[in-house]
Design a protein that fits this description.
Elements lengths: L2 H16 L15 H24 L5 E6 L4 E5 L8 H13 L2 H14 L11 H15 L5 H13 L2 E2 L4 E2 L9 E4 L6 H11 L2 H17 L10 E4 L6 E5 L11 H18 L2 H15 L26 H14 L5 H18 L19 E4 L4 E5 L2 H15 L4
Antiparallel strand pairs: 1-2, 3-4, 5-6, 6-7, 8-9
Helix pairs in contact: 2-3, 3-4, 3-5, 3-13, 5-6, 5-7, 6-7, 7-8, 9-10, 9-11, 11-12, 11-13, 12-13
């Protein structure tokens, strides 16, 4: 490992380890609204109660996926679904805030069910699945074996990297296709952790290469992102730029923009390379300056949806954006930092009230309402989603860390 890489990783480890402990005074004078912090503390408690209600409805050996209110139907998945890590991850975040023993017990029960996925080489989503769950557990309530599970997960994720393309394959497809989606930026954090944990720089190099390839090919001149890039697996050349979950190939699918924002913020945290900070800033500015972003800052499911202002909003995109902005504002210059902080604050205030925040023992036990999964496919449309809850609770915790 080079001296530069050692220094970079040392600095990143320090920053990662102290991220939640930074005082408000050390972050460009940004200070949380006391009333929202008080409300957040109440939400942590009520969310814990909601998740106990959800746990009571959950069949054994299944993970919550979404809920359909009209049919009073809870949809669940096995551990192989890409969202399986969010439920235990949210439980762990809630345990950190409430210290409720039953919440921790349920999280540990779900982690046991999730262990098998550490050897899953058929998915790029092991960062979502394993780092949002076992990564949180390792910090909040560690047990012997968690570190090895995460290392095995990082090895499995790395197996999907192709040096010729310079990226981790997202979806297995036809032989002549190599599909990479913007969502995959969210899985790189696991690889950075693996290098810190082992000193093996190969994980770090894969993450950086993937991020560079994505930065080169996924983004338009205005710094909006395509959803899917189809590479030629033999040459690494771009064959097609398209969408899967957005309105159109050239539209800006809201959650895709959120994944990019969050992903490049993490890239800067982990490498301290300013090109990633610049990229995160440009994505943030695309989002926040877009004429179709509503005043309450919760985006329509696609910034170019044809029926705006009557298009569905996506709480999950808003939650991811809020959490990302609350980290990005720590790195940005003071004027930008204030803009990012205020936007995140508005997003969290909006999500922390009706129609987004669900009443007790409604919404199947999920915390947030009105997320959008896959409109083109007609699935998970205007429903609760586990990742909306996860990034919302993460965002509230990050916001709370700006209070005295």
């Amino acid at each position: 490992m080079t001296t530069y890489l050692k220094k970079t990783l040392w600095a990143a480890a320090l920053l990662t380890g102290t991220f939640g402990k930074l005082s408000a005074q050390s972050v460009k004078g940004l200070l949380a609204d006391k009333s929202l912090v008080k409300h957040a503390n109440n939400i942590f408690k009520s969310a814990g109660q909601q998740y106990r209600y959800l746990a009571g409805r959950l069949p054994a050996n299944r993970f919550p996926k979404t809920f359909y209110a009209k049919a009073d139907s809870l949809e669940t998945s096995g551990s192989g679904w890409w969202c399986s890590g969010f439920y235990p991850g949210t439980l762990l975040y809630l345990y950190k805030q409430t210290h409720d023993a039953a919440t921790l017990t349920e999280a540990q029960r779900m982690l046991k069910l999730l262990e098998v996925e550490q050897h899953n080489k058929t998915t790029h989503d092991l960062g979502f699945m394993m780092y949002c769950s076992f990564g949180n557990a390792l910090q909040i309530a560690p047990k012997p074996g968690y570190k090895q599970i995460l290392l095995n997960s990082a090895k499995s994720l790395s197996s999907r990297f192709d040096a010729k393309v310079g990226a981790i394959k997202s979806w297995d497809s036809k032989k002549q296709e190599y599909l990479v989606i913007i969502d995959n930026m969210m899985n790189l954090e696991l690889l950075f952790w693996a290098t810190r944990a082992t000193g093996d720089s190969s994980y770090y190099k894969i993450a950086v290469t993937h991020a560079n390839t994505t930065m080169k090919n996924h983004f338009r001149p205005d710094f909006s992102s395509y959803h899917v890039i189809n590479y030629n697996p033999a040459t690494g050349a771009v064959q097609q730029k398209r969408t899967a979950q957005g309105y159109a190939d050239e539209s800006a699918w809201a959650r895709g923009q959120a994944w990019g924002l969050y992903g490049y913020t993490v890239m800067y945290r982990e490498t301290k390379n300013k090109k990633y900070l610049n990229q995160a800033n440009r994505i943030a500015q695309f989002i926040l300056n877009h004429p179709n972003l509503p005043k309450d800052k919760i985006p329509y499911w696609d910034f170019n949806a044809p029926n705006i202002p009557n298009a569905l909003r996506d709480a999950s995109a808003g939650a991811v954006m809020a959490s990302a902005l609350l980290e990005l504002c720590r790195y940005a210059d003071p004027s930008q930092a204030k803009i990012y902080f205020n936007a995140a604050q508005t997003m969290l205030k909006t999500l922390s009230a009706p129609p987004y925040l669900a009443a007790a023992k409604t919404n199947g036990g999920f915390i947030l309402q009105h997320s959008v999964g896959h409109i083109p496919q007609g699935t998970e449309v205007d429903v609760p989603l586990t990742y909306a809850d996860y990034y919302y609770i993460e965002g509230l915790e990050r916001y709370k860390n700006f209070s005295r």
